[in-house]
Amino acid sequence: MVDKKKTRKVVSKSKVENDIKDLEKHNLDDFSNQQNETTHKKVIYVRRKTYYAKRLCFWLLIFTISYISCIYFINKSFDYKDATTVKYQDKQDIDYKVYLKKNDFYESDYLDEDMLYVSSLIKNIDINFIYDFLIEKPISLDFDYKIMGNLVITSPNGNKNYFNKKYVLLDSKKASINNAYKYEIKENIKIDYDYYNNLASSFKTQYAVDTESYLNVYLEIDKKSKEDSQLEINDKSIASINIPLSQRSLEIKFDVPDTSDTKNVIINGELIFNNKIIILEVVIILIAIFSLVKIVKIIIKIKPKKTKYEKFIKKILKEYDRLIVETTTLFDENANIIKINKFEELLDVRDNLKLPVMHYNIEDGKRSYFYIKDNNDIYLFDLKAENLENEK
Is the full-model pTM beyond 0.85? Predict the structure, then answer.
């Protein structure tokens, strides 16, 4: 139990009455000074508010312009290029001349193509391979090509092979183009007809079998687009010529792809970035961030700060919500007033008496009464803002 005689300070009724009246009445001099001080503070407040309002409007304008510009330039900083189809051609041609041994009939040293030839008069066959690559858009491409000869000895109907052997007539060569529309390959090869004809005839004679034989000479071209190329091409082209062997007369035939055929390659869609606009976009974003920081700082400055009194009242009302009762009625002036120095001591009284703590707001933000009424006794804690501000 709280000892009323030792721990409580008894205050006369007239003293409390005067305290309350002091809040409502002031002498003319004090009132005049207070009015002047209030007016001065209002002028300073208005000026300060106007200053920060102008700054806030300025930075809000900067932020708005930056934000709109940012959205506008984002759309301008890149462009999407749709996928497109590009056509290209592999044009191939073969021409040849059949060079003859000395004879009593032909005055020329060679015969042109598309004729019948007497095999015993053939000295060699001069073959020209011509290849042209054409494309609608520039490309970077690597070529790898070679000329091969394939000696084939088959059954008369050609269903089965007796013998098959490949010869390298021209070693592999490499070539490349960079950002070009076309490329041409020309290669010449001479075929020693007697060498391959004797091989085929020897096989037929030695083993006494009916055979048909020929030498297939072909140009094989592998092409592949480079890693940095937008177009992706990876295919092979072959043009060939067939020279019959072990026959008294022969007709040379060749196999060349149709030059009118076209192939397609797809360029994938891609995003194209404008570096200059991206740099400008970064600068605008930095300006927007800077202006936003300024806006936040100004809002923090103009936002009213809570005083120690307001913080204390809020803390008490929050922590002891179940113990405190808000009231708009002040206790009787004739009651026995017992002043309490600390709110914690008032809580001790409440614990002993098991009575609620009443809260009466005298002046907003400046003064409050917290009291407990026990019959005619009033246990009063007088909370003043000025006392809290003076505390260290």
Answer: no
